[in-house]
Design a protein that fits this description.
Blueprint (H helix, E strand, L loop, with lengths): L1 E2 L5 E2 L4 H7 L1 H21 L4 H18 L7 H11 L11 H10 L1 E6 L4 E6 L7 E7 L2 E4 L49
Antiparallel strand pairs: 1-2, 3-4, 4-5, 5-6
Length: 190
């Protein structure tokens, strides 16, 4: 025991206790913990095959869930969370929808140092949109039904409908003798 003042005594802390109670010690312990988590993540990334299989299962579930009801953002988030733990219904056998998905969409897997991402490319998203993330042997979907193209149709028939409708009435803007047509005469400095 050491005496701080005349009336108080404290026990002497060990070197580890002093290190643990210091700010630098806490920062080093936090960085070591984060380093261990990253090292575990480095070795537990899902394989490309597992990522592709899980994402195709998640896409089947997304198509199955949204065949009659279109959800909003909260519905998509809850559905994606539940898809982590569930599989597509085996009774769901919509070959036409899956063939259309294969025809108009392309699922690509990208490996990163600590995680794996799945991107979906189609005509709406030619650069690709992230639809899933994989780390710690888990695949977390982030797909929405609006990301998937299942059919292609014309958006607007330009032959029948005009982009700018001509006005049927000529508006009278008044008379002003100073209004003249503009004619470019060239640069006056040249």
């Amino acid at each position: 025991m050491e005496q701080d003042t005349r009336n108080s005594y404290r026990t002497k802390e060990s070197l580890f206790q002093e290190f643990y109670h210091s700010c630098l010690g806490k920062i080093i312990i936090l960085l070591a913990f984060i380093g261990v988590l990253l090292l575990i993540a480095l070795f537990t990334k899902p394989s490309d095959e597992k990522m592709r299989n899980e994402m195709m299962d998640n896409i089947r579930q997304c198509i199955q869930d949204n065949d009659s009801i279109k959800g909003d953002g909260i519905d998509d988030a809850v559905a994606n969370f539940s898809r982590i733990f569930t599989n597509a219904d085996t009774a769901f056998n919509d070959k036409e929808a899956m063939e259309a998905f294969e025809k108009y969409n392309k699922l690509e897997i990208y490996r990163h140092p600590f995680y794996v991402t799945a991107r979906l490319r189609n005509n709406l998203n030619p650069e690709g949109i992230r639809v899933g993330v994989g780390f710690y042997r888990m695949v977390i979907p982030t797909i929405k039904y609006s990301d998937i193209i299942l059919f292609i149709s014309t958006i607007k028939n330009y032959n029948k409908e005009r982009l700018i409708e001509p006005s049927t009435q000529d508006e009278y803007v008044g008379e002003n003798p100073n209004i003249k047509e503009y004619h470019y005469l060239g640069d006056p400095d040249q």
